Amino acid sequence: MQKLPVLRTLLQWVSDPASLVYGRGVDRSRIRRDFLLNFLLGSTLALAIHLAPKSGWVVTQQEQATDWMLRINQGIDPESYRGVPLVLLEIGEATHRTWGEPLHVPRERLAALIRFAVGGGARSVVVDVDLSRPAGQGDRELEAVLRSAGEQGGPGAADIVLARGLREPWPRAEGAWLEERASFLDELVAASPRLHWASPLFVRERDLRIRRFRSFEPTCTDGVPGVLPSIQVLVAVQVLDPMDGTRRLNEALRHERPGCGGASVPPATTSPSLRFGDLVIDLRGDGLANLILYAFGWSESGPTASPRVGFRERQVPLFTAVPAELVESGQPLDPSLVEGRIVIIGASHADARDLHHTPLGELPGPVILANATYSLLQYGNLRPPPTRLLLGAQLVLIAVVSLVFARIASVWATLAAAPLVIIMLLPLSFLLFRQGVWLDFAIPVFAVQLQAAVKKYSDQLSTLRERLRNLRGRIGSGPDSGDGDESEESNESNESNEPGRASKPEGDA
Predict the structure, then answer these.
(1) Domain extents for the chain?
(2) Which of 41, 119, 376, 463 is buried most deeply by CB count within 10 Å?
(3) First vs last Cα of the chain: how many Å apart?
């Protein structure tokens, strides 16, 4: 017998499908009117948010949404990987103390690490160590190792990318370009096509987190204009196009030199972007294009949540960390550890002062560099979805939320609106995110919250006007206009016509 009400309800829905949307026993004309008003309001608010300059609150919401998506995306294996795995020869806390906690990385030990990477067949070697100042007798051994590596030829020879030291000009001036620090390796790097200087700088946001990379760094040193590619862009280009990538990048950056010291810069005839099949690296990318899609984090014990990728017909970790002391001490290691991979030599110990806040927590600089390199190799520049998809998704969301506001009281609709938008957008955002497309759900959520606030205050204003109208009617009718029963019936009649309450159906039951 308890099933009869359920069966009766199903039969009513079958006989009257519109009741699924409107409900039974309600004023459908009022719901249609409220729905259209809410839809127009939501669409107007969404359009205004898109066209208006980004306020600090909106930017904060977008950054929080991006950080959340990055955190849930870390550690997930990509369907396919077009790059190569990364290896960090880590100068960690244990290694730093074993070496006697030197102020600078000992150059003879650094030379041993580079020799191991090049001799092991690394695809590219990144030296994320400051080499702007001489450090003693070890400099000669480092120069010898770099000279030998730079003289190697052939398609399998490794490119060595060195982090260039940069500084503010003095005296400081507003809008002045950075200066390149001179190094004892300048002549050697200039003479070798396999040795390269690159910028290690990233973009630090207003909350001190690193979310985006820089594609290049214009410089002005002693009145001479220059431009440095960022480390991650240079390495990605060399991996994607081993034969001609470096030349293409330098040609594109030739037009990005600043006009300092009276030098004239040739105008760019094409957009400074590089295409590698379906992957595009735009050197003038905006904030979205330069977003780092972090794939792995870091802890005191090493990498965390590193995905596995296909490499030479087997699955291997995308990112591996090897303590530098194991390499430098001559202990036997797997010879295939660095073969064909990108090798980064950098420090993670506290004295290096190279720990930075990121969406995944505090990460050492070399780990951020590895994430940025992976992001470029796998996705290129992050891009927004097609305009038709973006507008269509937002209109559907606004329509659903408008129906919720038309059917449910404002208080409950406000509580349900934002979670409903997130639940509807999250699966689509996650799928697109895995393809390097970012569907921003912060703006739709913000528009829904504004819509909810406007609807709430609109309903409160309507209720206040109705009460004032009733109060005027009572005052105008005077104390002798009727007995208490009639007054109570009038109150009940007025309350039944308040917005948000169901009125008697008009022939639709």
Answers:
(1) 26-67+385-475, 80-379
(2) 376
(3) 24
